[in-house]
Write a structure and sequence with these properties.
seven-stranded mixed beta sheet, alpha/beta, four-stranded antiparallel beta sheet, Transcription Elongation Factor S-II, Chain A, Aminopeptidase, binds zinc ion
Length: 686
C-alpha cells in the first residue's frame, strides 16, 4: 500500500505546500466559469455552414480571434495554402435504365428545422473525389474494405468499369475509394445504411436523433502515407506568396484518387439496391433495408454518375491563443479542436470550439485574479481538419523543433460536447491524470462525478489508447508529445446538414449542462499540468502498458508462427524500464519533499520528463509511411481510424511478413532502454 501511496502523490507532481494552493485555484477556476458562455458561443459559431476555405469559415475565424483577444490571450493566426477541393463542384447521380430516376443528393428541407432551408448549405460530397462521368452497372461491396474486395474477387465478380455501391462504416471512407479504384471500379457511391444509423436504431430526424432517408455523411477521401497537405509532407504548407518558399510536390505526383465518388442517404441507396437482381450477398453483408441485398445489379440496371470537383490552392488559418506561463513560459500545455465543419457543425466540431472559447475566457479571468498558470497554456483552433487533419499537421511541421523541446502535453477536444456520456483515450503517461481530473468534476445529471459517469458498472473507467482520426495525430505520432483525446459523446447526425444548433438543442443536451462540465475537466487537467512543480506524468504506466501490449503482440505472432520465441530483447528492456520507472517515481517524490530542490534542478527534471516520450520517435519511421515516427502508436494504415499500438509489429502481422520481427525486437528494445536510461538519469542527484 505504501507504494501506491508513493505513486499517487508523486503523480500529482506538486510540492505539499503548493497542493493546497492548487486546489484553491481549481475551485476558483470552477467558480469563474460563466455557464451562459458555452451556449452563446455555440449559437454564434453555428449560424452558417462553415467549410474550410469558405467565407463563413473566415467569419468563424474572426469570431475566435475576437473572443480570445477580449479574454486577454495573446492571439496569433497561422496561414497555409493547401491543395484541396474547396467545394462540391458539379455532381449528378441518377438511375438511367430501366427507368430514369434522378436521386436525391441533399438533405430534405424540414418545416420543423429552419436551419435546413439555409441557402448556403451544400449537397452531399466527398472532398478529394476524382472527376469523371460514368454510366455503368452496379456492384454492392459491403463496407468496401480490403477483405470485402478480396471476397468479391474470390466469388469471381468482375468489378472493372462498374460503379461500386458501398455502405459507410468498417474503415475510413478514403480507403473505400482507394480499394474500389484498385479493383478497377469506374465510380463509387457511399451511403449510410439504416442498420448503422437510421430507423433500425431508433426514430429518425426530425422525430428522433438518427439519420433519416435523406441524411448524408460528408467527408474527405484523402489517403496518403502521411498526414496533412497532400503536396507538402514533412514541411508546412506556408502561403505561396511568402518569402520562404516551400518545396511542393506536383499535384499529379500526389497520391490522389481519380474515380468519381458521391455520398448519399439510404433513401437514394434504396432505389439502386432494391432493383439489383444478382447473387444474394454473403453472410454479414445484409444491411437494414427491407429486401435481400444482392451483389450484382445486372445488365438491365444502369446508373449515371458524374463528379466535376476542381482542386486548387486554398488559404486556411489556424488560430492559437496563449496564456503565458508566469514561471515556466517555455513549457507548453496545448489544447485544441478544429474549427471547420461540413455544415453548421454544431456537435462536430463547434461544441469543442465553444467549450475552448469559454475556457479561454475563464483562464483570462483567472489571470486577472493573480492565479494564472505557471506554464503557458496554448489553445489551438485548427482549420481544414475535415479535409484530412491538415491545419494542425502543418502547424506541427512548422513548429516541430520547438514543440519537441517545449510541449508538455496535447489535449484534443474535437466535438468534445456532442452528448452526455464521457469518454477519453490517452498515451500512457497521461492516463492517471485524466482519471484523477475526471474525479474532480461533478456530473450534472445525477449525484455522481464525471469519473463515475464514465465508469458505469465497471470497476474503473475504460480509458482507450489513442488512434487516428483527428488533430492529435501530428503531435503524438510525428513528434512524440504525450496526448489525450476526450469529451462527452452520444448519438449525432455526423457530418450532415442536420448537425445544427436546432438539433443540438433538441437532442444533444437540451439543458446545456455538458459544456461547462467538459470545460471543468479540461481546465483542471490543464491547470495540473501547468502548475505542478514536476510535470505529473505517470512513469510506471509505461512498463505496465508495454507489458500488456507485448503480451498481446506475441500471442498474435504465434497464431502465424507457432514456434515464435517472443520479443526477448524487448522483454528484458521492459524489466529494466520497470525498475527505472519505480526508482524514478520514488526519487521524484523525495525531491518534491526536499526543501533543497533548486529551480535549476526543477528545470532539468522537467526537461528530462518532456524528453521521455521522444524515445518512441524513431527516425526511420514506419514501413507503411516514414512520416509516422512513433513506434508506440499510430493510426491503422489499412482502415485509418483504428488505433495501432506497437505499429511496427502490427504492420508485419497485417502483411504476414515474419522476417522483420527480429529487427523490430531490436528497435523496440533500443527505444525502451533509451526511455529507461532517461528515467535513471532523473534518479541521480543533479
Ligand atoms: Zn471533428
Amino acid at each position: 500500500m505504501i507504494f501506491i501511496c508513493f505513486s499517487a502523490t508523486a503523480q500529482t507532481g506538486f510540492i505539499k505546500s503548493d497542493w493546497k494552493n492548487q486546489l484553491a485555484t481549481e475551485k476558483l477556476f470552477n467558480n469563474l466559469i460563466d455557464d451562459e458562455r458555452f451556449k452563446i458561443h455555440l449559437k454564434e459559431l453555428t449560424k452558417k455552414p462553415h467549410v474550410a476555405g469558405s467565407k463563413f469559415n473566415d467569419d468563424v475565424i474572426d469570431y475566435i480571434v475576437k473572443t480570445m483577444n477580449s479574454a486577454g490571450l495573446d492571439v496569433k493566426k497561422y496561414p497555409y495554402d493547401i491543395y484541396m477541393s474547396k467545394a462540391p463542384g458539379e455532381s449528378y447521380l441518377e438511375i438511367v435504365e430501366p427507368k430514369r430516376k434522378p436521386l436525391s443528393m441533399k438533405e430534405d428541407v424540414l418545416e420543423e428545422d429552419p436551419y435546413s432551408s439555409d441557402k448556403d448549405l451544400w449537397k452531399g460530397w466527398n472532398a478529394y473525389s476524382g472527376s469523371g462521368v460514368v454510366t455503368a452497372e452496379v456492384i454492392y461491396a459491403n463496407f468496401a474494405r480490403k477483405e470485402d474486395f478480396e471476397k468479391l474477387q474470390d466469388l469471381g465478380i468482375d468489378i472493372s468499369g462498374k460503379i461500386v455501391i458501398a455502405r459507410y462504416g468498417g474503415n475510413f471512407r478514403g480507403y473505400k475509394a482507394k480499394f474500389a479504384e484498385a479493383a478497377g471500379a469506374a465510380g463509387l457511391i457511399i451511403y449510410t445504411d439504416p442498420i448503422d444509423s437510421g430507423y433500425f436504431k431508433g426514430l429518425a430526424y426530425p422525430e428522433g436523433p438518427y439519420y433519416s432517408e435523406s441524411t448524408i455523411q460528408r467527408g474527405s477521401l484523402l489517403t496518403e502515407d502521411f498526414t496533412g497537405d497532400p503536396l507538402t509532407p514533412y514541411e508546412p504548407a506556408l502561403p505561396l506568396d511568402y518569402k520562404i518558399k516551400i518545396k511542393r510536390k506536383k499535384p499529379e505526383d500526389a497520391q490522389l484518387h481519380s474515380i468519381p465518388v458521391v455520398p448519399v442517404g439510404y433513401g437514394a441507396a434504396k432505389e439502386i439496391l432494391g432493383q439489383m437482381n444478382g447473387d444474394v450477398v454473403p453472410e454479414g453483408w445484409q444491411g437494414g433495408l427491407p429486401f435481400t441485398y444482392r451483389l450484382q445489379g445486372g445488365s438491365a440496371l444502369k446508373v449515371f454518375l458524374e463528379v466535376n470537383q476542381p482542386r486548387e490552392f486554398v488559404r486556411v488559418h489556424n488560430v492559437i491563443g496563449t496564456v503565458k506561463g508566469s514561471v515556466y513560459p517555455d513549457e507548453w500545455v496545448i489544447l485544441g479542436c478544429h474549427l471547420d465543419a461540413w455544415g453548421f457543425g454544431a456537435t462536430d466540431p463547434s461544441s469543442g470550439t465553444a467549450m475552448l472559447l469559454s475556457l479561454s475566457e475563464t483562464l483570462g479571468k483567472l489571470v486577472l485574479e493573480g492565479k494564472g498558470p505557471k506554464r503557458s497554456i496554448l489553445i489551438g483552433h485548427w482549420d481544414a481538419e475535415e479535409h484530412g487533419v491538415i491545419g494542425s499537421t502543418e502547424w506541427v511541421e512548422q513548429m516541430r523543433d520547438e514543440l519537441k523541446a517545449k510541449a508538455v502535453a496535447y489535449m484534443n477536444f474535437d466535438g468534445a460536447v456532442s452528448g452526455k456520456q464521457f469518454g477519453a483515450s490517452s498515451s500512457p503517461s497521461l492516463k492517471e491524470l485524466v482519471l484523477e481530473s475526471a474525479k474532480e468534476v461533478d456530473y450534472p445529471y445525477s449525484e455522481m462525478s464525471l469519473y463515475d459517469n464514465w465508469k458505469g458498472n465497471k470497476e474503473t473507467p475504460l480509458i482507450g489508447n489513442l488512434g487516428g482520426g483527428s488533430d492529435h495525430i501530428g503531435f503524438y505520432m510525428h513528434v512524440g508529445i504525450p496526448s489525450m483525446s476526450g469529451g462527452a459523446g452520444g448519438t449525432t447526425v455526423y457530418h450532415s446538414n442536420y448537425d445544427s444548433f436546432r438539433y443540438y438543442e433538441r437532442f444533444v443536451d437540451p439543458e446545456f449542462q455538458m459544456g461547462e462540465t467538459i470545460e471543468k475537466f479540461a481546465g483542471i487537467m490543464s491547470l495540473r499540468l501547468a502548475n505542478a512543480t514536476l510535470i505529473p506524468y505517470d512513469l510506471n504506466r509505461y512498463p505496465n502498458d508495454l507489458k500488456q501490449h507485448f503480451g498481446k503482440a506475441e500471442e498474435k505472432v504465434r497464431k502465424l508462427k507457432p514456434d515464435f520465441k517472443g520479443f526477448e530483447k524487448t522483454r528484458l528492456a521492459i524489466d529494466y524500464l520497470s525498475n527505472a520507472a519505480n526508482t524514478a517515481t520514488k526519487n521524484l517524490l523525495n525531491r518534491l519533499n526536499d526543501i533543497s530542490l533548486t529551480s535549476s534542478e526543477i528545470r532539468f527534471l522537467n526537461r528530462q520528463l518532456i524528453a521521455l516520450e521522444k524515445s518512441f520517435i524513431d527516425q526511420k519511421g514506419m514501413y507503411y509511411g516514414d512520416w509516422f515516427k512513433s513506434i508506440y502508436a499510430s493510426s491503422d494504415p489499412f482502415s485509418g481510424y483504428a488505433s495501432w499500438i506497437l505499429p511496427g509489429i502490427e504492420y508485419e502481422l497485417a502483411i504476414k511478413r515474419m522476417k522483420k520481427l527480429k529487427e523490430w525486437d531490436n528497435r523496440y528494445a533500443k527505444a525502451i532502454t533509451d526511455l529507461a536510461q532517461k528515467m535513471s538519469k532523473m534518479s541521480k542527484k543533479y
